[in-house]
Design brief:
With 359 residues, this protein is α/β, with parallel strands linked by helices. It contains 12 helices and 14 strands. The strands form 3 sheets. The chain has a 10-stranded mixed beta sheet, with helices on one face. Strands 1-2 form a two-stranded parallel sheet. α1 crosses α2, α5 crosses α6 and α10 runs parallel beside α11. The radius of gyration is 21 Å and the shape is elongated. It binds S-adenosyl-L-homocysteine.
């Protein structure tokens, strides 16, 4: 059997140059190939028409190009589009295009399923099936940008789809480097937001990254007892430790950490919760993003009334905390936060999931 071919989708531009070198192909072709894949959205080597036929054949002999395949494209009345994507091993993930937020945004997955098991999130009910590769993470952006006509336009990326990005650290960061390449989509890290439950070793590595995305912390509760009940990793990485890392987190000028807070009716949405949240964030350059729960079957919580949401927001605003309420997008097509799930995901055992949580 011949050795497996290298996947072009998994390579940073420097790695592609090295791989071409090794095949005695001129390294400058790496830039051309990158341009075809990322700027033109081409998914087949045969369509890279400024490479000679001989060169294309040589490349096909040594490399493949894997691209997530669109198997469904649901459109919401509000313009949001939810894509179901099939990977090379036939596993499925979801990624969402959210227009006019005011920017154009792609919400991208980092894992098939998720091991975090947050009590209000449907993806958490699936358990973790597997990590995505860097090529599969960056591939979602390629596919969505091509499908929505955005390859030549600026857009934002939020790592808020399925999965916990800091639980798949290396592939997530490699995907950001691939997307950052000037030869490709040239996505600046300022246009990327990484959302996490707060896995501390991951946050500490992130603080040293040369390519640092914006940071969003999924807080959701103001006491350890309540947070552990809602966001189980809190048992290992409690509130005070996460906030301490945030306090020390190196932020560029005028940057702030976003704290996401899902509002669950009569659970974590009381005036005392709001006041405690204000105190916890003392001394951290922060803004708060309130997310009224997107309810779903099997989720044992309700969405609070607009009055309760407004009262919570007002208490924070009175304390001079910047607060926004996340408008729910694409709820009619189950594309909103916490509603991404793929039918038929095989659930990893609890023991497997705990093992994965260990650094
Ligand atoms: N694992 C990462 C990113 C995925 S979720 C994280 O937890 O941050 C993106 C955001 O949607 C998180 O803040 C998550 O807590 C929130 N979310 C999950 N389920 C939700 C639901 N049913 N309604 C509203 N927001 C939800």
């Amino acid at each position: 059997m011949s050795p497996p071919r290298t996947d072009l989708a998994e390579l940073e531009v420097g790695e592609l140059e090295g791989a071409l070198d090794a095949q005695e192909v001129e390294r400058f072709h790496a830039r051309q190939i990158y341009r075809w894949i990322y700027k033109r959205g081409v998914t087949e080597v045969d369509r890279m028409t400024d490479l000679s036929r001989t060169l294309r054949e040589a490349i096909k002999a040594e490399f493949v190009l894997s691209t997530p395949r669109v198997v469904a494209d649901d459109r919401s009345v509000d313009g949001t589009r939810k894509f179901a994507l099939e990977l090379a091993d036939l596993r499925r993930i979801e990624a969402v295009f959210i227009p006019d937020t005011p920017s154009m945004t792609f919400c991208i997955s980092t894992q098939v399923g998720c091991a975090m098991a947050c009590g209000f999130c449907l993806t958490g009910k699936m358990g973790l099936v597997r990590n995505l590769t860097a090529g599969e993470i960056a591939g979602q952006v390629r596919v969505l940008a091509a499908a929505t006509g955005m390859l030549d336009h600026p857009f934002h990326i939020v790592l808020m789809g399925m999965g916990e990005p800091l639980h798949n650290y290396d592939s997530t960061m490699k995907a950001l480097r691939i997307l950052h390449s000037e030869r490709g989509l040239a996505v600046s890290p300022r246009r990327v937001t990484l959302s996490t439950v707060g896995i501390i070793p991951g946050l500490e590595r992130l603080a040293r990254e040369p390519l640092m995305p914006n940071l969003a912390i999924s807080l959701h509760a103001t006491t350890d007892a309540q947070r552990t009940a809602l966001v189980p990793p809190n048992r290992k990485y409690p509130l005070a430790d996460i906030l301490e890392v945030c306090r020390r987190f190196p932020l560029k000028t005028r940057r702030r950490i976003t704290f996401e807070y899902v509002l669950l009716d009569e659970v974590n949405d009381t005036p005392e919760d709001a006041r405690r949240l204000g105190r916890l964030l003392n001394g951290i350059k922060s803004k708060v993003n309130l997310i009224p729960l997107n309810p779903a079957p099997g989720i044992p919580y309700d969405r609070p009334s607009d009055e309760r949401v407004d009262r919570f927001a007002q208490i924070l605003a009175d304390r001079h905390i910047t607060v926004s309420v996340r408008k729910s997008r694409g709820r009619d097509i189950r594309a909103a936060c916490g509603q991404l799930i793929v039918e038929g995901g095989t659930k990893a055992s609890a023991a497997q999931q705990m093992a994965l949580l260990m650094p």
